[in-house]
What we know:
Helix content: 40-55%
Order of helices and strands: EEHHHEEHHHHHHHHEEHHH
Number of strands: 6
Oligomer: single chain
Number of domains: 3
Number of helices: 14
Structural class: mainly alpha
Radius of gyration: 31 Å
Distance between the termini: 97 Å
Amino acid sequence: MSSTTGASCNTCRVVFENRTLQRQHFHSEWHVYNLKREIADLKPVKLEEFEAKVVEHKAETSDNTSKVEFCKVCNKNFRSLESYQAHIRSKHHQENVIHYKQFLEENGLDGEIDENDIAFQDSNLVQSEVEEEPSKKSEKYSPEVLQQCLFCTHKAADLEHNLEHMSLRHGFFIPEVDYCCNLQGLISYLNTKVYSSFECLWCRDRGKVFHSAVSVQTHMRDKCHCKLYHDNDAMLEYSDFYNYEYETSSDDESDDGYDLSLLESGDPYHLTLPSGAVIGHRSLFRYFKQNLRLLPPENGRNSNLNEIDRVVKKYKGLGWRSTTKEVATIRRKDQKFIQRHQTKHQLKVALGSNKLQRHYRDPNGY
């Protein structure tokens, strides 16, 4: 190349025969790479060295892509061994493993099966999730969880002092607490949302995504979101911890006009409650992000009566107003409507899994 043309690159230390080659060089990856090295006070590399680095980088990339880890149970790919091992230790994976084994046993399958041969979110697995849900009623709640503040690092002596701290320091009140039948379960569930899911109690899944409990707590304090969202159908998420039949049992006859047959004629992925609220089907959980759980078979309000009464008394001293009877009646109707619909669906799934087809049996056997 001739140096008399004046077409050169001081960064890469090369000379070109004409301006066209110079302009093409300025758009090359080699030139961009040397520009970055110049900014970092590093010497430029020759074209041969740059091409060797490109080949080496492509080889490393191909090795990494060929070592993609795959979880057959959850049907997920992982690009690194560390992320795969973290997934294996997660609670979500352990639950899926249990459901996966149950699916194999119920269908008489042994050994490994291709994930394309089954739909893991089958009705059998939905049934197992529904059947395991009531067992959460019997689990014991950790005292550390009940003593931990939801909005800061404060740790109280017990649940009552913790609620008093959150109401005085952060202005947090449990909505409709006079109808709450499982106060410890509700606080434990909210603790999981904040410390495990990193979810704002007011924004829920509609707001910013957080990556730590400290960040979501800071957000709730700064935005005055130290409160539980309970408008419209939001309280359906916490229906497992409430019993609206208390003091409203005289209105039982008022909801007889709602017929479950209306569910069959509507959209199978939406359910309209007597109050007008609309909830989505569990198969669309990733879109609606609702958490509709079965009501426990026993509403243990008497066991929590004294504790809740003390909390209500403290709330009233701070100016809290009780839920009106009209609102409680609407909540009770929605809760009862969902319970009847879930019972009907659970019965349908149970009948389908009991293998009552006689043509599969020996006609001479008993």
